[in-house]
Amino acid sequence: MLKPTLSQPSPSAWEKTDETLLWQQFREGQTDAFQALVQHFYRELHFYGSRFTRDSDLLKDCLQDLFLDLWTYRSKIIQTNYIRPYLYKSLRRKIYRELMRHSAEISNEDVTFDDVSSEEITAEQALIRTELSDYQTARLNALLAQLSDRQREAIHLKFYAELSNDEIAEILSVNKQSVANLLHRGLSRLRESWPSLLSMVAGWLLGELFSN
């Protein structure tokens, strides 16, 4: 049904006003706008979803269901300027439901936000804004594995998806201060473990935590 490519621009390549207009046109039933919406968000949603499951078929099904539901219920979906949080949260819920179908012991708090191997630029590489050697990447991944799932997810949403703390709070169903705490603790631990890597951007990073 949907044939999105994985070579779309990064989130920062589009202005939010463009996304809002596209969302409005999609809600009005314009099929071209809907296809453009799929193309625009598929890549980052796929990457985000891949951090919860290594089952590519399950992830593709969840993405298909997400966009199918959007089109089916488009007339009932509200106009919003917070499109990305809406889509992230919706995909998150669908993945959780599918994972919980296979394990009665899994809850929303238990599902792992994994650091799977990928050819994509990782959230952590976007975070430090530099090219990493294989050794540095492996070392950073090892440090990230010591963080909580929520801390890793918050870092991903902040520095890969480029969401505000308010938007992250909506996705994680927590308050803004909780998001700031997650980011602060996660980044502080990275900085303490590897000060030479983060020293150049530490001030900027900590400023970003409470800026919006």
TrEMBL record:
Keywords in alphabetical order: Sigma factor, Transcription, Transcription regulation
GO biological process, one term: DNA-templated transcription initiation
Matches recorded under SUPFAM superfamilies: Sigma2 domain of RNA polymerase sigma factors (SSF88946), Sigma3 and sigma4 domains of RNA polymerase sigma factors (SSF88659)
Domain RNA polymerase sigma factor 70 region 4 type: 139-190
Molecular-function GO terms, alphabetical: DNA binding; sigma factor activity
Pfam families: Sigma70_r2 (PF04542), Sigma70_r4_2 (PF08281)
Domain (RNA polymerase sigma-70 region) ranges: 37-103
Family: Belongs to the sigma-70 factor family. ECF subfamily.
PANTHER family xref list: RNA POLYMERASE ECF-TYPE SIGMA FACTO (PTHR43133), RNA POLYMERASE SIGMA-70 FACTOR ECF SUBFAMILY (PTHR43133:SF46)
Record's protein name: Sigma-70 family RNA polymerase sigma factor
Organism of this sequence: Spirosoma terrae
Lineage of producing organism: Bacteria, Pseudomonadati, Bacteroidota, Cytophagia, Cytophagales
